[in-house]
Write the C-alpha cells for this entry.
Amino acid sequence: MNAWYKDIRKVTTLEHPIENGTALAEINFWAQMERSLNSVKEQLMTRAVQETLNVLSQAKMYRVVMSFQHDTDIHDKLKMAKEYNKLLKEIPIKSLLDALTLEQIETAIKKIFTALKRVRQLGSYPLDRAINLAEVIARDFDTQLKKVVSQRPIMQIPYSDYKTMQKDLKQLYSAWTRAIGEFKQGIGNKLHSQIGAHAHKIEERLNQMVDDPVFRRLNAITNFRSEHHKLEEVISATFAKDEQKVAGSAGGSSIREQALTDMREAYEIFAKSINVLDITKDG
C-alpha cells in the first residue's frame, strides 16, 4: 500500500516550471499529466486494489485507507490538469514551430493568441502562468523568426530582395503588436483585479514583448542596408558626373567601378564576419 501511495504521489506532486521551457513543453506536460492520472485512476478501480482496500477496511485500518484515498491529491490534480488543458489544447503552437515563411508565422501568431485570449473565460489557468506562457510563445516566435529570415543571407541578398522581405517583416511586426494588444485587452478584467504593483509589473512584461529584440535587430539591419545602398548611389552619381567631364576617356568610368568594387568588397568582408541575428550579449 505504501508503495502504491508513493508512486501516485510521484505523479501528483510533479511540477512544470514554465519560465525556462517552451510552449510545446507546457502543452505536452499537462496533456501527459491528464493521461497519467486517468490511467492511475483506472488502475485504482481494478479488482486487486479494491480487494486490498476492503481487507484493510475490514481490519479497521481506516486511517490507512483514508490516507490512500484522499492524501494522494489525485482528484485535485486531475481536475487542475483538465482545466488547464481546456486552454492549452486549443493553442496551435506547432503551426508556429513548423512555419517556413513569414506569412505562415503571421497566420500562426494570430491563431495562437486568439486561443490564448480564452484565459479570460477559463479562470482556472492562473494569470501569472498565462503571462509566462505568452512570454514563452514570444521566445518560440523569435526562434522561428530568426530561422525563417536566415534561410537566405540577409546581409548579402540583393537590396531589392531585402526591401521585399522588409515589407513582409513590417506586416508581421504589426500583426505581432496587434496580437499582444488584443491579448492584453482580453485579460483586462483579470489584470484590473491585481494589486497595483503586481498589475504594473504584468503590464511592463507585456510591453517588453511588444518591444521584440529580434525586430529591433532587424530594424537596425534595415537602417544599415538602407544607408549602405544610399552611399552606393551617391558614389555612383558623383563619379558619373566626373565621367561626363572626361567624356571619351575611360578614366572616369574605371575610377567609379573601382570605388564601388572596393566598397562592396569591404561590405562583403563585414557581412560574412558576423552573425547579425545573434542578439545575445556577445552578439
Q: What stands out?
A: The chain has two domains: 2-87, 92-283.
